Amino acid sequence: MPLKRPHQHRDASPHLTVNPVFSREPIKVPRFELPGEGMDPDTAYQIVHDELMLDGNARLNLATFVSTWAEPQAQQLMAECAEKNMIDKDEYPQTAEIEARCVHMLADLWNAPDSHAAVGCSTTGSSEAAMLAGLALKRRWQHRRRAEGKSTERPNMVMGINVQICWEKFADYFEVEPRYVPMEGNRFILSAEEAVKLCDENTIGVVAVLGSTFDGAYEPVAEIAAALDGLQERTGIDVPVHVDGASGAMIAPFLDPDLAWDFRLPRVASINTSGHKYGLVMPGVGWALWRDAAALPKDLVFHVNYLGGDMPTFALNFSRPGAQVIAQYYNFLRLGFDGYQVVQQTCRDVATRLAAEIAKIGPFTLITDGSELPVFAFRVSDDITNFTVFDVSAALRERGWLVPAYTFPANRTDLAALRVVIRNGFGHDLGDLFLEDLRRILPRLQAQQQPHRDADDAGSFAHGAETKTAGRPAIPEQVARGAHG
């Protein structure tokens, strides 16, 4: 079925009619064609401004992990750097220097063996960072296989079915077989045992997620790494780990310092995070880091003679503003370790308190409680048959709350849940207002004779919790043999 844009679902007028209060005279503006003539800037502003009022309130969006609040000083710096192209490192050398400082700060935060020897770069977000990390894993595997005189056909990557949709895109775009570990029972994340079962000599890497988009849970990175150590001892198969820390890589260092998930584990080759999630920057920046230069194949790094200088670059995007990188550095300076710790602890406190209060409300059962990522998921209890999580989501939206409802993937498609993401700027007061509205809608929902909404009404509101497309058979016979030596 062809993808329809919103305006194609209705008989849209071909023109926008502008209120004469905002212009010198009534005018009509074509919706889908470039206007023949220009207009007063205030009129153009008002047209765009009025249409954007139909968007949801970003501060009440409990679906997105992306930052929706920033200090005025950060916003001012972003405005001052909006015209600076990150790729022009010869023209904007200090912006390039600040990007490098952020890389070294993150390498130190993630316990790289030598934070000054670690390599990395900024990206437009974790999706691009994941692509770069996956490419590095694939290229390293190809180099090793060629050196051994072996085939480089049919590379695969092992991950839980709960990974963000960007990993499915990576596998499709760069021709890597995705081997998904399905959910089973109350296990909603990748386990070490199940990961190793799917590895063979063609496995380029295992992706471990520090903070699942489905429920906020950490995957056991240290256990996965240890199981892969055992696999190598038994079979000689050496499989590196990439940690998708889109959210958790900016939570765990501050709140879970004793948790081993990062470059302290020798098997962890690379880590990505989203600066615009719990890095506290407005949308548009991610980070990809490798433990050392050996983890990033040199043939993936381009040296471009660009505008008078030699510029090493490893990125999928070329031109992009330096504003978000500058905002990341501002946050690092402004908050420091202690400041980030306070912000993230507050988010976790709000999440765990809200989860505990919701657990006390009769119709709901917690899936997670916000004690890892400041994110929790809950479902309608088993004895409730007259409304669904999709009814709850729709009712909350009437009050402006954007709370995603979705079904879990294989093998738990029977489970439907609501997920709440707590970000900086969503404090206890807003949490109390959310609880009041949740309690307010319950009498109406409980009075229903039957559910009014189901998964078909959820649209594409999952924010990373989309169902993955099944790839080739997950556990071919030769994989099972190889995994157990």
UniProtKB/TrEMBL annotation:
Cofactor names: pyridoxal 5'-phosphate
Catalytic activity, as annotated: L-glutamate + H(+) = 4-aminobutanoate + CO2
Domain of life: Bacteria
Region (Disordered): 446-485
Keywords assigned by UniProt, alphabetized: Decarboxylase, Lyase, Pyridoxal phosphate
EC number annotated for this UniProt entry: 4.1.1.15
Pfam families registered for this protein in UniProt: Pyridoxal_deC
Keyword Lyase part of the UniProt annotation: yes
Top EC category: lyase
Xref: InterPro entries: Glutamate_decarboxylase, PyrdxlP-dep_de-COase, PyrdxlP-dep_Trfase, PyrdxlP-dep_Trfase_major
Keyword Transmembrane helix tagged: no
Coiled-coil intervals, chain numbering: none
Homology family: Belongs to the group II decarboxylase family.
The protein's name in its UniProt record: Glutamate decarboxylase
Organism of provenance: Streptomyces albospinus
Gene field: gadB
